[in-house]
Amino acid sequence: MATIVPKADFDPSEDAQALRAAMKGLGTDEDTIMSILCARSSSQRDIITEKYKNLFGRDLVDDLKSELGGKFESVIIGLMTPSYEFLASELKAAMKGAGTDEDTLVEILCTRSNDEINLIKEAYKNKYDKDLEDALKGETTGDFERILVSVCGAARDEGVPVDPDQAAADAQRLFEAGAAQWGTDESMFQMILASRSFEQLRQVFREYAKIADHDIMDAIQNEMSGDYQNALLTIGEGLY
Q: Domain 12-80, what fold?
């Protein structure tokens, strides 16, 4: 994804006034809102928020929430929210009320580095006064719960050089836990896919393809099912 560079001739007062005008009176000028907020860097949006409060005594994010709706609101509020706070709020929403949005849990948690997971956990704890891992345990079950809690532990072997011998051994373990036997040892897949660094997993997957007549994604498709399968596939898809 492209990074928004700071606007060269940035005038926060002008932007704040234009945003207020876009939300004042009947109707909302969504084009103006988008042209300003989507073309400013994160730090510039923070400055606009402060200037808006100084000029009008109002909270810009609250005004945006009251004036916008649907997907457009989600995009704009996402832009205005620090990224890890936004992800924490998305996780909370995915576990709120009857039913759980498992796809959102997987999308957010299964593709992040240790540092990113820890920042999300910190934001969740600060915002909701509850540990994310406890929330996940209360809303998920079985193998799906175990893989999410493992990933949430932020214990990948990051910062360690890729070990070809370990990768070959892990590939053999995965083969023996799945395609080589009747039934599947899900715990072995969870242990390896949730604890090895992403760089190490790439090597594991290459080694797996050498000893099996299929790749690891085919194995997951054939051996797993449901939300647990989706979680493992999401981890794997980010490495191809």
A: Annexin V; domain 1 (1.10.220)
CA-angle at 194, arms to 188 and 200, nearest 5°? 95
Q: What is the pLDDT of residues 110-152, one digit of tens each?
A: 989 999 999 999 999 999 999 999 999 999 999 999 999 999 9
Residue range 142-183, pLDDT digits in tens: 999 999 999 999 999 998 999 999 999 999 999 999 876 666
Please state which of the four CATH numbers 3.40.50.460, 3.40.50.620, 1.20.1070.10, 1.10.220.10 is assigned to the domain occupying 83-152.
1.10.220.10
DSSP string, 152-200: HT----TTSPP-HHHHHHHHHHHHHHTTTSSS--HHHHHHHHHHS-HHH
Residue type at position 53:
K
Residue 130 Ramachandran class (φ > 0 left, ψ -120 to 50 alpha, else beta): beta
Task: Quote the pTM value.
Answer: 0.72
State which amino acid sits at residue 7: K
Looking at domain 164-237, its CATH architecture is Orthogonal Bundle (1.10)
